[in-house]
Design brief:
5-stranded mixed barrel; 126 residues; mainly beta
């Protein structure tokens, strides 16, 4: 099985969708890396991941707010398509098995020490 682990910041508040016998929590996570190029300029590259956590335990969703830092692990499920303008589009997706809250941008900026994990929820495959 392929497994993907990321640490990043939520780009929006999580949304819960009730599908009758099952529920899904949808959220997006931005993962950024910075480096200095040959011209001594700082360059930041950001990759977005669309995350889906399946199951009937949606209690963690109330803590998944825009700007919160999270650790996410799960199965990659990237998808691609061609839009109406003929442009190829790709979405980096993760079917989430485990998520841990690490803190928020404001908490990280106020403290040099990493915030402790608040909540962990683990689930097997959907």
């Amino acid at each position: 099985m392929n497994r993907l682990e990321i640490i990043g910041f939520l780009g929006q508040d999580a949304e819960i969708k009730d599908l009758g016998t099952n529920q899904v929590i949808n959220f997006s996570v931005a993962v950024s890396e910075s480096y200095t190029n040959k011209q001594n300029e700082k360059v930041t590259s950001t990759m977005w991941f669309e995350c889906a956590k399946w199951g009937n335990s949606t209690a963690i969703a109330q803590y998944l707010k825009k700007g919160t830092q999270v650790y996410v692990s799960g199965k990659p499920n990237n998808r691609g398509w061609v839009n109406e303008q003929g442009e190829a589009k790709i979405v980096n997706g993760i079917t989430v098995f485990d998520i841990q809250l690490l803190g928020s941008k404001t908490e990280s900026a106020q403290s040099n020490a990493p915030a402790p994990a608040n909540t962990t929820q683990t689930q097997t495959n959907p």
